[in-house]
Structures are given as C-alpha cells and as structure tokens.
Specification:
With 124 residues, the protein is mainly β. Helices cover 0% and strands 49% of the residues. The strands form two sheets. Strands 2, 4, 5, 6, 9, 10 and 11 form a seven-stranded mixed β-sheet that branches. It has a four-stranded antiparallel β-sheet with strand order 1-3-8-7, with no helix packed on it. The chain is globular and about 45 Å long.
Length: 124
Amino acid sequence: HVQLVESGGGSVQAGGSLRLSCEASGFDSSGFVFSTWCMGWFRQVPGKEREGVGEIDSDGTTRYAESVQGRFTASRDNAQNTVYLQMNSLKPDDTAVYLCARVRGVVAVGFVDYWGQGTQVTVS
C-alpha cells in the first residue's frame, strides 16, 4: 500500500532553516506513477485546523500559503520518489507537525488521497 514518510524535522532557533523530506513508496503495483502526483505540505498545531502550506504539481509548479510565501520552497526528485520543503527564516509561529500528502490539485484536507505520519518542527 502507498506510504509517505516525512523526515527532517527538529528544533531550530528563529531565523534558522530546516529541510523536510517526504518519500513515497508502496505504489509500484498500484499502477501509480509518482511523477504524475501533485504533492502538498500541511501543518498541524494542537487545537487548530490542519493548514495547507504549499504544493508542487507534477510539472514543478508550486503554490504557497501567504504565511510562508517567500520563505518556504517546495521541490521534488521524481527519481527518488521524494518531495522536499525548504523552510527558511523560520518563526515561532511555524512550530507545528508538518505532513506531506498526495493531493488532487488543491492543497486542502478534503482533496487528500494519502497522508504521511508527520514530522515535528519546533522554532524557538
């Protein structure tokens, strides 16, 4: 079955950077082709709704939430079945569990087919 596994989270001081990775696996027998997937990044803070952060389409087009525009950059390596989220100029408000997901063209919870388990990012 399809799995998405995030890594790269951790603790960082305000102004610092982190790079998250999300590797997809388990889809070879399903006929899915990773390079055709639109992938999204979300974040979750306890007590708040899960928020879409950004997405990267199959052609590499990216879109971001206003709160991270200019600071976060999504990229992908289809040969590695992996997407990345480079996070710069981090702020304490960026503290959250970050999750990747396969999305159906819109980075919103209702448009997710598969979720990763999440990785914690803490900015102090």
